[in-house]
Amino acid sequence: MKYLCLIYETEAPPLDMAHYIQEHIDYDAQLRARGQLVEAEALQPAETATTVRMRRGRLSVTDGPFAETSEQLGGFYLVEAGSEDEALRIAAGIPSARNGSIELRPILSFGPGPEGPR
To answer: Using one digit for the tens of pLDDT, what is the confidence trace for 26-44?
Structure first.
């Protein structure tokens, strides 16, 4: 089953950015080698975000993220795991879990396959 690991952290850069990036690269490689990483990406800073809403047929576009919080969505890992426990272990291994938080969400598929009907 596929799980989305949403990475939330403050936008303050880590003290050793090169080491932080290398940790993510190394973890990505470990997950890929085990066939568990589907995709992983970092996001541009929250200041580049745009929030889109449709209310009563009217489009509303707002600069910035949906919520003002100290932690912002910084990236994601889309992983393949045999169980929720396995997905939790994968999420706990993401380097950002040490100073931010990882929101783990199972993917709801609308197609044929192990995740559900299409």
So the answer is: 999 999 999 999 999 999 8
Between the CA of residue 91 and those of 67, 71, 102, 109, what are the distances in Å? 23, 17, 6, 20
Question: 3-state DSSP call for residue 45?
Answer: coil
Q: Cβ neighbours of residue 44 under 8 Å, at least 6 residues apart?
A: none
Over the stretch 66-104, which tens digit does the pLDDT of each residue have?
A: 666 677 889 999 999 999 999 999 999 999 999 889 999
- Helix/strand/coil for 49: coil
pLDDT in tens, 48-64: 888 888 999 999 988 87
What count of other Cβ atoms lies within 10 Å of the Cβ of residue 5?
24
The β-bridge partners of 73 are 8
Of residues 42, 118, 40, 112, the one with CA closest to residue 80: 40
Query: Which residue shows structure tokens 């100290």?
Result: 70
Look up the pTM and report it: 0.81
Q: Which residue reads 């990505």 in tokens?
A: 28
Q: Are 43 and 73 in contact (CB under 8 A)?
A: yes
